[in-house]
What we know:
The chain is α+β, with helices and mostly antiparallel strands. Helices cover 59% and strands 14% of the residues. It contains 11 helices and 8 strands. The strands form 2 sheets. The chain has a 6-stranded antiparallel β-sheet. It has a two-stranded parallel ribbon with strand order 1-8. It starts with 21 loop residues before the first helix and ends with a helix.
Amino acid sequence: MSLSLFGRKRLPMVLQAENNECGLACLAMILHYHGLRTDLNCLRGRHGASGQGATLRSLIRIADCEKLAARALRVELDELVQLQTPAILHWDMNHFVVLRAMRGGKALVHDPASGETTHDSASLSRHFTGVALELTPAPTFERRQESARLGIGDLWQRSRGLWGSLLQLFVLSLLLQGFSLALPFYTQLFIDDVLVNHDLALLKILATGFFMVAVVRAFTDWLRARLVLYISNNISFQFSVNICRHLLRLPLDWFTRRHLGDILSRFGSLNNVRDFLSSGIVEVCIDALMVSGTLLLMFVYSATLTWVALIAVLCYLLLR
């Protein structure tokens, strides 16, 4: 977001995805700062991506299309403090960065290639070429949201049988939680009936039932682990196939504008998505049902003691 909770504008950090799109990344940061919450995909779709990278002239043209007033300046190091920030700086003769502010004689820089950096006068003299570009909103500038959002449904669009496997995993997890909730009832029967009345016959029944529940729980736990492994492998395989299919349809210049590590990282990021879909969603749902079921049983037994426990938990959270 461009505005903080107290109404102050905040400059986001936008990293370039291609070798030669530092200029677009800088414009995306400044547009976001002024209220147009866009991203590289939207800017790339409207203005294209040059294999040779952006020039100062092309940045001014794109800024004009985005309703930003641009002013190119020749600036000395001691004049950087007078720039209207955020501003774009020409860097290392072949790169663009965003100057966020000058504080204590140091420049706070958002570099699309390396992230947020701080430079003193010596470092600035080595990197800054003396060319800066001030960008301010024109009267026709519109503050809006246009970033392309990726829906959760897009992640498993081609994963066959995923919903059925997730349903099976949900049922097995629910059974395991049910076994956990049954333990207090077993303890109650053992204490109230077996120990008090010395009922050996009931003790044998409870012991047999507990043994059977333990066996069924162990089998269910094993089956759930196997199902999680199957779902994880299925999601990982389907996602990898989808990305490979998409990569093979891309033009050659798409690969020339990107680092090899950036392409490989797209495959590595599948692990987090896979873990989230195979266990994260199910665990959240099961934990919610577990808390709801436990609270319901507690209210059935004693509403007063339940409220005492809830207030104690609330006080503990507030004290932390």
